[in-house]
Design goal:
7 strands, 15% strand, seven-stranded parallel β-sheet, Rossmann fold, alpha/beta, 7 helices, 231 residues
Length: 231
């Protein structure tokens, strides 16, 4: 399977790339910095099964250029994993919140996946396709808390986008999920987080491969083990 993965140069994205490559998939790693040393290590290990492409999900021109390049190369996709995200304006009270920070979060966390799907969906033609949006428990309205406004609200909106795509792509048998990857030891999650990114990556690739099949869901929002999350 050919997997397009955004935000692949570190953290969860890097772990997903490593897990997918280890299982025999081909990964197209969309990154802002094509000179990532960690991706270079994977490239040495897996050769041409890893393709590193420059990509800025906050730029429609960049996304459209990637789609054009892949189409020209005759590439097809079996999965799209929208992983690129930012967590900004942490611990900021609403009274002090800079709305530019909110706009930035939406540019990356919501509009980024929307741009990717807009331009790359025509290439998602392989059998048993999957479209996975990496969300967060912070996007759960049920468990809302007063903080992380840009991140949380953008992830809630991403969950809505996933639900719309689920309805849109149902007849094509494309699996669409928003996935809470757990609180992980990454630059975003910090050292106190309890979850190894590779453990989360294993669950996410299991979902992609349909080794884990969530039970009938009210909404397409699950954690990395396939358990339904409260919307």
């Amino acid at each position: 399977m050919n997997i397009l993965l955004t935000g692949a140069s570190r953290g969860l994205g890097l772990a997903i790339a490593a897990e997918a490559l280890e299982r025999g998939h081909a990964v197209i790693a969309g990154v802002r910095d094509v000179g990532s040393e960690k991706l270079a290590v994977l490239s040495e290990a897996y050769g041409d099964r890893l393709t590193i492409k420059q990509l800025d999900v906050a730029s429609e021109e960049s996304v459209a250029q990637l789609a054009s390049t892949l189409k020209r190369e005759g590439r097809t996709l079996g999965a799209i994993i929208n992983n690129a995200a930012i967590l900004n304006a942490r611990n900021t009270h609403i009274e002090e919140l800079d709305m530019n920070e909110v706009e930035l979060a939406f540019e990356v966390n919501l509009y980024g996946p929307m741009r990717i799907v807009k331009h790359l969906l025509p290439l998602l033609t392989e059998e048993n396709g999957a479209l996975l949006n990496i969300s967060s428990e912070a996007g759960s309205i049920t468990n809302a808390y007063p903080g992380d406004y840009p991140y949380s609200i953008s992830k809630t909106a991403l969950n809505m986008f996933s639900q719309q795509l689920h309805r849109y792509l149902k007849d094509r048998q494309i699996q669409v999920l928003s996935i809470h990857p757990g609180w992980m030891k990454t630059d975003m999650g910090g050292e106190n987080a309890p979850t190894d990114p590779r453990a989360s990556a294993r669950g996410i690739v299991d979902l992609l491969e349909r080794r884990i099949v969530p039970e009938e869901l009210r909404f397409q929002f699950v954690d990395y083990t396939g358990k339904e999350m409260p919307i």
